Amino acid sequence: MTHQMVRDWDRTLVPTDAGRTDAPDPACPVEAALRVVGGRWTTLVIRELLHGPLSYRDLGRLLPSLSDKVLSERLARLTDLGVAERMEAVGFPTRVTYRLTARGEALRPLMTELYRTGTELLAPEAN
Amino acid sequence: MTHQMVRDWDRTLVPTDAGRTDAPDPACPVEAALRVVGGRWTTLVIRELLHGPLSYRDLGRLLPSLSDKVLSERLARLTDLGVAERMEAVGFPTRVTYRLTARGEALRPLMTELYRTGTELLAPEAN
DNA sequence: CCGCATCCGATTGGATACTG
DNA sequence: CAGTATCCAATCGGATGCGG
Question: For B85-126, where are the alpha helices, taking DSSP H only?
Answer without folding.
Answer: 102-105, 108-122
